[in-house]
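Go through this chain.

——
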Amino acid sequence: MKFASLVLLTSLTATTAFAPPRALSTTTALHSTLQSPPQRTAPAAGHIPEWENRPGLSPEEFMASDLSKPDLGGMWECPLTRWNSEDIDVREAQRMAKQVPGCPLEIRASEKDNAMGARYFAENREMIRSKLLEHGAIWFRGFELMKSVKGNREMHEALGLDPCLDPLHSSGLRKFASERDALYEEVNKPSLRQHYIGLHNESTAKRTAAYAAFVCFQRATEGGGRFLVADGAAILAELDTKVLEKLYNRKIRISVSNLDIPPALPGVVKEGIRGLVDVAVAPKFDMDLEMIYESDGKPGRLQAVETAESPINRHPVTGMPVWFNNAHNHARKLRDRRPCGVPEVGMTEVFYADTMEPLDLEDCMEIKRASEKHITALSMEPGDVLLVDNYRALHGRDVFQGDRFHAVTWFTWDQNEEWRGNERRIVEKNAFNQAINKMMDWLPKDFESNQN
């Protein structure tokens, strides 16, 4: 019986944060859950800055680490999610959200700024940290310092940010670009370049990074690959109030992977499989998961489903209610309507928590409208960094052609030890992470077409 390999395959794309990007073609091997699959169209964006075609360094140059600096591999665990979502007046929350400044704030380097190097960030630390809290994200454009791994680390050290593990470090799809610099490779894998990653916070119901710094070392060589960012406060203010109240009152649950078991198997066998997955696989994801059969109506389908969570959460520092969830990325009715080549095992779904029914099409389309209206599709080029407040801003990524190298460092609560916790990196998580990434690296570059 090949059950063990099926379980491992299930884990390949069981992730709430990086679920794949927008194809340039509308053809896909993915089988829609709908009897008459809708046409796949590329998602929109409210603002699309122009490319400036700034040059970068060679891979040998940008990947060089400063070996005189200490190894950051023993970084903090990702902190637990700060939930404060009870008793929110939705209408008042929308009124408050309309008052906040726009996201992202753009800071463009001058010749003087570039001449200062890391000193620019050290001398402007308080201003930058204040603006990050105010706007939710800052786009640093044209900085020479961050064109390399070495300079990128100098930047976040000058800002006093404290690196942590990705919320889903143990799940796979979380590969280090430079482990000693606490730098993860973003989703640059050739096998995933033809997938659109919808808007999400880097978060699960259990763990959430406080901040992130996304850096571009090499833009896509053949086009595409815009980085997407949107303001969770603006989306909250934009959403239809009745839809928002419905989602808030009913809460949501997200399934992160599927394992299709032959429906004809005896019940006792199916329950044995569920128990095995629950004990042997689910804990590897460091998530609170429940294994549930046939939530999406497909006979024999076993889904790993997160616990119920509110789609609105108060920001831990400001107390501002914001749209804080990954429905735009994970709702099946949205993924079925945009270019997407994820294998069925990794397709996700969003449910109303009270009935475990998938979100209605009307609710999904309202989430799509409100979210995409506020997307800025960034033209990030070598040296550009997007510094993100992970509780305020949502992010994603467009599809691309050719080769692309973006990376990200996640940060914990550096100014609040209680929120940060006392967990340093749990080394036992590494084996599963490394095994999954090796399997992903084996996938051919034309993975989507090979699914036909």
Notes: Residues 1-34, 432-452 have pLDDT under 50 and may be disordered.
